[in-house]
Design goal:
By secondary structure, this protein is α/β, with parallel strands linked by helices. It has twelve helices and 13 strands. The model has no long low-confidence stretch (mean pLDDT 94). Bound molecules: zinc ion. The site of zinc ion has 7 residues, from loops.
């Protein structure tokens, strides 16, 4: 049993309480490799932001769970080396799908886990989530549960259509399970193709697709039922069209990729939403930089020469999210 506290990691409890009170959200960035992790930590240190490093099933399959865990331990030391005396870094399991997996991650040193029972019947979701919470809390690890189903595809999580969270269920779910935070579905979606063109309207000025607005009435109803309780939004990439354009003009083919407009996420950050998950935007930033470098320098074959610019672009993206969308900059005082 490895205790995350010995690795210098923190759980989400105090971080979320402060974020809800302060009207900002903590960034939860997925990572799969060294460049992405470096970019996240550089951005968090430079902006003095707390940060959640999260690991999905796809990341565990791709990069190995043990290796990623050691990278998170390295991230704490790296943040200190970059000048942050007391970094606030959470290592979080994204979309845990079984009790065994959550238990295994907690024993490996994760400080927070998500148990996603949202596809199960309500009572089974409650029972599974409670079982994970009971084990996690023995080790002071925080747990995120989910009610409602997000559409879209991300790694191995996928659903054809979304089902908004039912506000009438949230008090019962939180009370029965003891979860520390709740992911809800209000119209965000996994992946870079969040909406079909039929679901969108066309901006007459730019000709770009405009997605349907998030269901803020559902969010407000949830907040009314659970005042001050930490709420989480998954699938909250904005799919920057500059990156889509760079990819498409350098040999790529992303058609009608649409995300959540940043002004809607800005609005959500000011509410009880205290964790916003962003993965696709980082993938797009990385791909755009690599495609551009390879197109401009076709003779280059040193991976550092294209992964370096990719890291720079991801760092820029993370800093932009922290400062201009989530508002978590300057929240680490020491
Ligand atoms: Zn998710």
């Amino acid at each position: 049993m490895v205790n995350y506290k010995d690795l210098g990691l923190v759980n989400t409890r105090a971080m979320f309480a402060k974020a809800v009170k302060g009207g900002y959200a903590i960034p939860a960035f997925n990572f799969n490799n060294m460049e992405q992790m470096q970019a996240i930590i550089m951005a968090a240190v430079e902006t003095k932001s707390p940060v959640i490093l999260q690991i999905s099933k796809g990341a565990r399959n791709y990069a190995n769970q043990t290796l990623l865990r050691y990278m998170a331990e390295g991230a704490v030391a790296y943040a200190k080396e970059l000048g942050c005396g007391h970094p606030e870094i959470v290592l979080h399991l994204d979309h845990g799908d079984s009790y065994e997996l959550c238990k295994n991650c907690i024993e490996m040193g994760f400080s927070s886990v998500m148990i996603d029972g949202s596809a199960l019947p309500y009572d089974e979701n409650v029972a599974l989530t409670k079982k994970v919470v009971d084990f996690a809390h023995q080790h002071d690890v925080t747990v995120e549960g989910e009610l409602g189903v997000l559409a879209g595809v991300e790694d191995e999580v996928s659903a054809a259509e979304s089902h908004y969270t039912k506000p009438e269920e949230v008090i019962d779910f939180v009370t029965k399970t003891g979860v520390d935070s709740l992911a809800i579905s209000i119209g965000t979606s996994h992946g870079a193709y969040k909406f079909t063109p039929e679901q969108c309207t066309v901006d007459p000025k730019t000709g770009r697709l405009l997605p349907p607005p998030l269901a803020f009435d559902v969010l407000e109803a949830v907040e009314e039922k659970l005042p001050g309780f930490p709420i989480v939004l998954h699938g909250s990439s904005s799919v920057p069209q500059e990156d889509v354009d760079i990819i498409n003009s350098n040999g790529g083919c992303l058609k009608a990729a649409v995300g959540i407009p940043e002004e809607q996420l800005r609005k959500a950050s000011k509410s009880a939403v205290c964790k916003i998950n962003i993965d696709s935007d980082s993938r797009l930033a990385m791909t755009a930089a690599i495609r551009k470098t390879m197109a401009e320098k076709p003779a280059e074959f040193d991976p550092r020469k294209y992964l370096g610019p990719a890291r720079d672009r991801m760092k820029e993206l993370y800093m932009h999210k922290i400062i201009n969308v989530l508002g978590s900059n300057g929240k680490i005082s020491h």
